[in-house]
Recover the amino acids of this structure.
């Protein structure tokens, strides 16, 4: 009669055969996760069988602890957003130890078995939608690079919607011209905001216009006197 461990080995073998035949990345990720889960359960069964008298402290030492990753760098083109996650020695892990699942507005990266830990890097509510079939990741020396294929070719102002909303909330609103407002002061505030938010070319244009305006005011004052 087959034991539970024997059944698990047969399941793992069958899942590995399915993994070899799978062509879609999402199917491969699901199968890989299930294989890893069964391998972990099988290892625990064999460990209990071989050393049933292990102490609690020794058992605790073998546990994998999940560590959430928050820091990352990013760069983009019109069609791709790249996320850079630094993780020492990640390149030494087998390929199946790293899994990344994508939805149209999120990514979920997990790294299994690095320094007896499970590293988890999730990003929810991306700034715009991505093409899950074209998105992927690559492992480099001490780094994972996640490439997000944008559904619409355009620059993203931020990686996530949360970051964008925080920035928008902090940005001062445009000055409104009302009956009680000084039009000159409102125009000055608007120009200041355009100068602060503008690029180098915009800043040069505003600075030039300001300088010419001041010179005209001084020339006009000289003629009046």
């Amino acid at each position: 009669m087959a034991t539970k461990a024997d059944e698990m080995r047969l399941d793992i073998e069958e899942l590995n055969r399915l993994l070899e035949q799978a062509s879609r990345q999402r199917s491969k990720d699901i199968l890989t996760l299930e294989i890893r889960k069964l391998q972990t359960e099988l290892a625990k069964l064999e460990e209990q069988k071989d050393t049933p008298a292990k102490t609690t402290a020794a058992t605790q030492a073998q546990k994998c602890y999940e560590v959430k990753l928050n820091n990352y760098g990013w760069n983009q083109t019109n069609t791709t957003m790249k996320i850079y996650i630094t993780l020492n020695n990640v390149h030494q892990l087998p390929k199946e130890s790293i899994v990344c699942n994508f939805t149209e507005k999120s990514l979920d990266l997990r790294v299994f078995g690095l320094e007896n830990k499970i590293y988890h890097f999730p990003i929810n509510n991306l700034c715009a939608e991505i093409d899950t079939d074209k998105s992927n990741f690559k492992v480099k020396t001490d780094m994972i690079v996640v490439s997000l294929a944008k559904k619409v070719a355009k620059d993203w102002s931020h990686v996530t919607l949360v970051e964008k909303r925080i920035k928008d909330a902090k940005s001062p609103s445009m000055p409104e011209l009302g009956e009680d407002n000084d039009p000159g002061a409102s125009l000055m505030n608007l120009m200041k905001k355009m100068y602060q938010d503008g690029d180098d070319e915009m800043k040069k244009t505003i600075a030039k216009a300001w300088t010419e305006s001041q010179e005209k005011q001084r020339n006009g004052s000289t003629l009046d006197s």
